[in-house]
Amino acid sequence: MIVETGHFALVLAFALALAQAIIPFAGARLGDASLMRVARPVAMTQFLLIALAYGALTYAHVVSDFSLVNVIENSHSLKPLVYKISGVWGNHEGSMLLWVLVLSFCGALIAAFSASIPIKLRADTLAVQGLLGAAFLLFILLTSNPFARVAQAPWEGRDLNPILQDPGLAIHPPLLYLGYVGFSIVFSFAAAALIGGRIDAAWARIVRPWTLAAWLSLTLGIAMGSYWAYYTLGWGGFWFWDPVENASLMPWLAGTALLHSAAVMEKREALKIWTIFLSILAFSLSLLGTFLVRSGVLTSVHAFASDPERGVFILAILVFFIGGALALFALRAGALPISGIFAPISREGALVVNNLLLTVSCATVVVGTLYPLALEAITGEKISVGAPFFNTVLIPIALPLALLMPIGQMLAWKRGDLLAALQRLRAAFLAGLLALGVFGAFEGAPYLSVVAAGVAVYLIVGSISELLQRAGGRGASARAAVARFFQLPLSAFGTAFAHAGMGLTLLGLAATGWGVENITTMSVGNSYEVGPYHIVLTEMSARNGPNYSETYAVMDVRRDGEVVARIEPAKRFYQARKMARTEAGIVTLGLGQVYAALGEAHGDGTIDARLYYKPLVTLIWIGALAMALGGAFSLADRRLRIGVARRATAAIPQAAE
Amino acid sequence: MIWLIFALLTGAAVMSVLAPLAGKSAPADPAATDKAFFGQQIAEIERECSEGRLESGDAEAARVEAARRLLRASEAADGGPAPSATQTRVIAAVGALLLIPALALPLYFYVGAAGLPDMPLAERLAKTPPHKDLSAAVAQIEAHLAQHPEDGRGFEVVAPYYLRTGRHDDALHAYGEALRLLGATPTRYDALGEAIVIASEGVVTPAARRNFDAALALDEQDPMSRYYLGLGAAQDGEKAKAREIWTKLLADASSDAGYRDLVRTQLDSLEAEPSEGAKEARPDAAEGPATEQGKAIAAMPDGQQQAAIRGMVDRLAARLARNGDDAEGWLRLIRAYSVLGEPGKAKSALADAKKALAGKADDIGRLDALAKQLDIER
Fold first, then answer.
1. Nearest CA of chain B to the CA of A117: how many Å?
2. What number of other Cβ atoms are within 10 A of residue B128's Cβ?
3. What is the largest CA-CA distance in chain A?
4. Which of A6-15, A302-311, A404-413: highest mean pLDDT?
């Protein structure tokens, strides 16, 4: 009864989503306040109904109700409880349900916190949101119903794909979806603004928290996904330029550009049309990602769903929404008032350069992802576009971008002084050069790593020094400086953290060039060298987990003869799916990691293993956390942003005296 | 009961549309939110100015800009929402009242299954008395084994079930665990070896042979392992060796041993088909009157039985494909597939049978009854 109640609630949510799409929209066109007001309660009820459906599906997974096809195919009565719950979204049907749950949740949030949004904009936004919800609910109900039942329930399920039975996967998709769907709200706002024909600084202010929240979730989601791939797939890589990873990177790049152009729009009422375009683009790329992952046009780790019927349906949704939004954009954008002409050397000028570089990066990733698919569709030839292409194209864009980031931060709005900005970055330049020298002397080749590490250190120091200079200034007493430091707006901390985080990630990426790899056959009692460490295999044995059996090895990590850590890599075998999965043994030492993954075991007691030493590798994800923290700071800063020309930056501290 | 819940949910959904339509509220000032926004912006400028983060000249400029935007926003507001017409509200309300249920109910009838109750596994296991339903009992044993993987008895009990239902890998695992945990006996080696033979479709593989050798090492008189080793030799084309093993087995066998006839049949077929290759040396190639064949099969050990039965079933299927007007034959075929643990084939045989016997209501009825009895889903 619980299951069917959830099923009915889902159907009802579809009907209600249609009502949400039609009635407020009609109200906005007729200028009827009552009809427009329908949007709020309907959005909330729709969320409650989908939450009910989601709860029912979770219940079915938890109690192993094998009368649901979805539970049979993705669960097992012996699976640990946490994976019974995460298994709900660890499959195609469940993850689509999560998608609409998050979508309706965002709709409910708009409805709940929209007192300051003009009623017409709110009605149109929720109408677009309702239409999106209706499309995806229909997709779920007709092609991917998680509530499909069988009358004769089997006694056991087929278990969840073992590589998905992992804490990383438990958090990764919800975060990613929060990001994708967060951009859907920005998209709805943009479409509503185009329909209503009103776009101004107020619009940018309303949209800002949504952009930030979506960007923040996406940043964390991507970082989590890459760390998950790093420790589960067992070959020590964290980014494979897999189309599915690119699918999350494309909206992230577009979203990052949007974040910056929206700041210009809010402060200076400029870049309006461009900001609206990026809003549409960010979500369109999210949809494209959803299509790539969900339609099964790719075959990769993530493609655990493949069904042509689904692909065509999603493609239809994609064409309808992207095409519709772009058509609307083409019709209306020309009519938008253009304002805010500005000097090239200014904060907004720097942000335009930023947008340019980010958009080019984004286009690169889109081309690199879609080109092989198009080629295969047209000529039947299968090629894979991987690291060589992306590195060749993206590194020459990323390094100048990193060089420009602190400079842009130093420039004032309206009219900036490039020379003064560069002067204020003296410390950062020095630190960068110093790092270049140190890394060059101690680590050496590859030189790209040395250069990238130098740029990264410059970026970190440059990002932070802007904060310090704003607090310190010339001749200020230490106490006054500290007091002013804590009075700085949170958004300034946001910028500094996000930029410094980018620098940390860049440093971690640069350091991968200095990693050491040792692929060997190990036997108990012997020692193997990897970087500055020696790894001794002390024990090899087997044991049983709840729904798997595993071979594990105990290894001592030694440095200068002393045991500094102990790792336990394992190879698990999952009975129900007859699938194996490696469980890497990882220990963090300093900022680097020692990583061991088991391969084939031989009859004579030896085992193949891959041993890695990865210096500074954790910085990649620490950097992502810092970026997300920066996003959170900015999100917490509820103040309005005012674009004021600063005559000379040094004048600010003086004004406080 | 469930329909009551559905009705309540539908009611709540419809109410969320109707509630805002019910009240006739005065239209809000369209520029209110803009005034609030730019008002806040001006207040913000004042604050920044007083905290010393903004120069007074800059603040003045910003204030002017904000005020200019506010003015523009107020001018742009096109009169705002009108007081709503009663007629529009009634149309919207009636539309929602009718269309939401009219959309939801048929769609639910199309995708839903209102009649199916929840079936939590724990509840189902508790409801099913042990051994009434074999698969439920097996599920219980499996749950037990997951908790106590050292219980060899459990593995020994479920192993033959796995073998019968075609879960060969599980069967091999269970026989192997039983052997490991309960200790080596000739019978356990034989059981594992035979399971390997069945899993390999009747071929005595090297892995199977190792087990039979191990059984023989424990008891050199063990008849089953000797039989299979002979069969293995015959399959490898070493007829002399096979003949020697089997002749000796017959000589050692007591006169009432059940396997005598089988070994004799095998020896005869070894003589009868001198030129056949290793695979054809399997006894299922031997044709004979149905009853005699049946007896011979019954006397065979499991592995041979399986292979022989499969041969018969295949021939039956081929015959029915040529001439489908044989209700008895179809019933036998469907039952056979079901017993062999091949529900897919049973299902397609059922479909074929219905096509072949179309128009014969009695026969169709018998097919349906059998399908129901064997639990073949259509």
1. 6
2. 16
3. 82
4. A6-15
CB contact under 8 A, A142 and B111: yes
Q: Which of A1, A2, A5, A8 to mutate to test the interface with B (most CBs of B within 10 A)?
A: A8
First to last CA, chain B: 30
B19 and A652 within 8 Å at the Cβ level: the answer is no
Is B353 part of a structural domain of the chain?
Answer: no
Each residue's pLDDT tens digit, A103-114: 999 899 889 887
State how far the Cα of A15 lies from the Cα of A35, in Å rounded to an integer: 17
Q: Which of B25, B58, B123 sits opposite A33 (nearest CB)?
A: B25
Whether residue B292 has pLDDT greater than 70: no
Q: How confident is the model at residue A648 (pLDDT cuts 50, 70, 90)?
A: very low
A15–B104 C-beta distance less than 8 A: yes
pLDDT at A81: 87
Mean pLDDT computed over every residue of chain B: 78
**In chain B, how many domains are there?**
1
> Would you state the CATH architecture of domain A166-337?
Up-down Bundle (1.20)
Rounded CA-CA distance B332/A338 in Å is: 83
- The string of DSSP letters for B228-248 reads HHHHHHHHTT-HHHHHHHHHH
- The DSSP letter of residue A645 is B
| CB half-sphere exposure, B178, CA atoms < 13 A | 24
Q: Is it the case that residue A629 has pLDDT exceeding 70? A: yes
In a domain, B194, yes or no: no
Q: Do B111 and A11 touch (CB under 8 A)?
A: yes
Model pLDDT, residue A217: 93
Once rounded to an integer, what is the mean pLDDT over residues A623-634? 93
- B244 is a domain residue: no
Instruction: Give the Cα separation of B18 and B101 in Å (integer).
Output: 14
Q: How confident is the model at residue B25 (pLDDT cuts 50, 70, 90)?
A: low
Amino acid at A169: L
The per-residue b/e assignment along A319-353, b for 16 or more CB within 10 angstroms, e otherwise, is eebbeebeebbeebbeebeeebebeeebbbbbbbe
CB-based contact A386:A615 (threshold 8 Å): no
Residues of chain A contacting residue B143, judged by C-beta atoms under 8 Å apart:
77-78
* B contact test, residue of A30, A38, A206, A549 with most B CBs within 10 A: A38
- Chain A closest CA to B337's CA: distance in Å? 19
Output the six-digit token pair for A95: 């993850």
| Per-residue confidence band for A543, with pLDDT thresholds at 50, 70 and 90 | confident
Nearest-CA distance from A430 to chain B in Å?
29
pLDDT of residue A333: 79
> Would you say residue B58 lies in a domain?
yes
Q: Mind listing the pLDDT tens digit for each residue in B240-276? A: 888 889 888 888 887 777 788 888 888 888 776 554 4
- ipTM for the predicted complex comes to 0.79
Cβ neighbours of residue B135 closer than 8 Å, sequence gap 6 or more: A155
Who among A2, A19, A67 is closest to B96 (CB)? A19
Domains of chain A by residue range: 1-161, 166-337, 406-513+627-656, 516-614
Q: How far is A526 from chain B (nearest CA, A)?
A: 31
Contact A99, A177 (CB under 8 A): yes
pLDDT averaged over every residue in chain A: 85
